[in-house]
Write a structure and sequence with these properties.
Blueprint: H1 7-37, H2 43-63, H3 69-90, H4 98-116
Helix pairs in contact: 1-2, 1-3, 3-4
Length: 120
Amino acid sequence: MQTGDDPDIDRESVMSWILLAIAGLLEVGWAVGLKYTEGFTRPLPSILTVISMLASIALLGLALRHLPLGTAYAIWTGIGTIGTVIFGILVLKEPAEPLRLLCIALIVFGIAGLKLTTKA
């Protein structure tokens, strides 16, 4: 039987991609959380940030069981980068200049390209 014909392998692959996406979203959470910890002097934001960090890294580790390291890490950081920039623009009123948005679009295309070229 070919690897692509095994439903368990396909499920593992899909689950790995889902875990990676959640890990990336949690990376956004801890990156944003760092802003609100004020140097880890505020207890609740600090605790939530650390929990988000640990959960993000744990899910990335689980996803790496079935995904290539370079692809998974690049996508994880890409999701975190894009999400953090979007949060900054929408919530913190950071600039949304055309060149900045173009750079974010390039990251999105890079993530999509990595996903499309990965066999896992």
